[in-house]
Amino acid sequence: MNRRDFLRKTATGMTALGGGVYLLGAASPKEADRAAKQLWRSTWRPETPHRLPDATHALAQRAIAGEHGRSMIRAEFQLDPAESLNATQDMRYAQAALLCAKNAPLRILPGEKIVGSATLLEAPAHQTPVLGCASVSHTTIGFDKGLKLGYKGLRAKIEERLARGGVYKPEPQPRLVAGDGGPAARCDASAAFHWTARPLPAYAGTPLTVECRARVTATAGYNILVAHRDKASPNHWELYTEPGTGFFCAYVPGRTPAVHHSQTPICDGAWHDLSMTVTDTSITLHVDGQEALSAALAAQPGGNQQDGRGADTGMLWIGAYPPASTGCSGDIARVRVLNGAEAAADWTPAADADGETVFADASPAGNPAAGPRRGGDLLEAMLGCLDAAEVWRQRHVELLDERIAASDGAERAEYARVRDTLLHVPENPPRDFREAVQSLWFMYAFQRLMGNWSGIGRIDEMLGPYLAKDLADGTTTLDEARDVLAHFWVKGCEWIGAFDTKGSGDAQHYQNIVLAGVDAHGSDITNEVTHLVLDIVEELHISDFPVAVRVGRNTPDRLFRRIAEVQRHGGGVVAVYNEDVAIEALVKFGYSVEEARCFANDGCWEMIIPGKTCFSYVPFDGLALLHETLGLHDPDTPAPDYPDFDSLYAAFLARLERYLEGHHKAADGWCRSGAPTPLLSIFVDDCIESTRGYYERGAHYYALAPHIGGLANVGNSLLVLRELVYAQGAVTLPEFVQILRDDWQGHENLRRMVQTRFACYGNDDDGADGMVRRVFDDYTRLAAQTRGREGVLRPAGISTFGREIEWAAPNGKRRASPDGHKLGAVLATNFSPSPGTDAKGPTAVLRSYCKMDFTKCPNCATVELKVHPDTVRGDDGVTALAGLMRGFVELGGLFLHIDVVDSAMLLDAQRHPEKYPNLAVRIAGWSARFATLNKDWQDMVIARTQQYA
Description:
Layout: H1 3-10, H2 30-40, H3 54-64, H4 67-70, H5 81-84, H6 89-103, E1 139-140, H7 143-164, E2 177-178, E3 183-186, E4 195-197, E5 208-216, E6 223-228, E7 237-241, E8 247-251, E9 255-256, E10 259-265, E11 271-278, E12 282-287, E13 290-296, E14 298-299, E15 316-318, E16 330-339, E17 342-351, E18 357-361, E19 369-370, H8 377-405, H9 409-424, H10 433-449, E20 454-455, E21 457-458, H11 459-473, H12 478-491, E22 513-515, H13 528-540, E23 547-551, H14 557-567, E24 574-578, H15 579-589, H16 593-597, E25 600-601, E26 607-608, E27 613-621, H17 622-629, H18 645-668, H19 678-681, H20 687-690, E28 701-709, H21 711-727, H22 733-741, H23 748-757, H24 766-784, E29 788-789, E30 792-793, E31 797-798, H25 803-808, H26 842-849, E32 862-867, H27 874-891, E33 895-900, H28 903-911, E34 920-922, E35 927-929, H29 935-943, E36 946-947
Parallel strand pairs: 1-20, 21-22, 22-23, 23-24, 27-28, 28-31, 32-33, 32-36
Antiparallel strand pairs: 2-3, 3-16, 4-15, 4-19, 5-11, 5-16, 6-7, 6-15, 7-8, 8-10, 9-14, 11-12, 12-13, 16-17, 17-18, 24-33, 25-26, 29-30, 34-35
């Protein structure tokens, strides 16, 4: 019986030991515990230090237990129709920010040393409260500049720019074009031209009919005719055409099935009358009065569970879906929405007094759909957002005054100290460490209140100088500073429990923190705050702030050892960048060395220049491309018969190159228009000066990175194909393709032979690693051929971020694989070896990974190690773990996750989640509490090879 089977049969509940895990529930039965200890030894865990006050631990436990998340509410308040009727998107955003600042519940707990809580349920649902549109994530904004200037300095900067004039004015909407019975509005494929209507609840109810008269001219991409709310909402709906075919389609994600494809093409340049009718039980599509589709509908199970947006008042878009920068190639002459028999909207295009094209509403609602904002709107909206932030601050001060009046003693003194801090910051630059922590948190928390998920960035560089001054002045101690900063961490996990997040886990709010490394001038910034952060992570074990430490050849052993000491507690919260390679990769890509030295990440681990970058990435599956090259997706066509391996490999590269060409075409039109972002844009370089928003090409850099996944299995599969088919001639390629199409049925011996006789990436085997490097080199070479175009950078990255589960699904694009895996197998994560194939220990894994030249991969690629706790025990264990990281740097690695965890404990946690409510594990760019993962994700983590150093 192997270890895994034994534990499945006997581990009825092993109790975790220490590790900062707050344990609930009873211990395991004595018999099972004794048996486990006798046969396998109990798992060692390091003792958790106790430096912080008990009161801080108590606050942490309340947040981790989900008390605050469960108390969050939806924003039931709405925009005033009279004020928002003719307002543009940016001004509506400012109005929404003011509503939230005035009405969002405040939470100030006794004993808190910093205050400010994002209490609206839309925020953890990645939505902007009130507006119902998507918020922003995958970036780190310039909190460092905001901290130094304060809101007062930011306000002065905006006012100065507004007074200078010459503000950006978007291109006028295209003039009205002639329809076949009146004017029509010309749309744009990149969503640069679209129209936004004020939200009305009537757009969400059933029965609902949506009518659209349109002329669509292209099939290359999606054409969005009309859409309601964000795609994440169960009340979203949209009318669109399918790429390639031009079929008229509808999408209703709150129902099942969600996607409805008619078989009627409409992208022929002719005018068509289109409609969708949705009831509680059915959907019907019509084209030119003829039924094109009729289907039954059912409510999506749990569809409303994660919506978090209350009454459905989301934006309605005509001619585009701006959150995805997806528009429409063609013209729209009319859109009508009927709720039952009553017209909720009846839009037709017309010119307003300024000559701009709008959609006038002839229905009783009188709700016009406005075009793009007019010049200066963004700056005015920024000022409105700062006014809203001041209202929010003042409400906290008033509540603190009430608490002071109602309390006495130490509690009264603490309330008074917090109030005095808020009287100065964040309006003004901080004067000491405590003010700096409160100011940074308050700025960050207001972004969170409005749904924005930004990384924090280099917190030690921001806060270190304030602490150094206070320590020199004798106005604080390290223990006091650690406690104040610990409250920042406690506040950061207040969204736990907001939703039942079964799936990829909780704590996915992209609030990454970067520590240590060099500054723009090449000087090391490591300071006392660096070590205080590591102390806090070690003691509280809060996983909601993933931490990435920048290390290099000049990093002192003290920091390597301190990282190792913290990593031993598990959770995978602390990862490391090799900044020597990262900086070289960014400089090679085209950034200045000063900018490259300041790199952080997008809140996950993709490398960006913080405070300057609008970033996103597009993942794709390299293994699926190989399977397509082999013809595995179409069993009715003859199998390809490439004459030699080089021909097969060339065909694979051609398919990869075509994919990248498609990526570049999509990137050309990216971020020309999108959801309003005036609050976030305040903190992004060039948005104020250019008077353009984050999604309007106002930021200094735009980066849309291609991210390939499955490279380990691509390399392993290619090696098998080269050796088994072409070198040994054991089977012909058509025979092997048929075996794979049959999912290895009847060929189990061959499958086992493939799995046991061929070397795999991750074992320091030059043959296997060389094949992976060949694919890596060709991918990065092809990606680098288009570094940037049309104002958008395209830095290459490698990741899966858990998509290996989705890709392995029966309806995914992966099939049985040449490297011996059957259909449905969950394979390699990010740039790690495929589970179970790395048999020679962690050093061999790192040697394989480090054979790549990561200066060619400017958006990052990560490798994960799951290390057994017993192997890092004692001082020798710390030395071994620190040496592993030092070797990683010396070998030229780029980014390393180490998770110290026992698979036995994970198996027990899967069976008894109530005993491990705070057991965290590293997933990809984030750590999540294991109990919040669904079984597929738990199995993926468990299946990672357990390494013994």
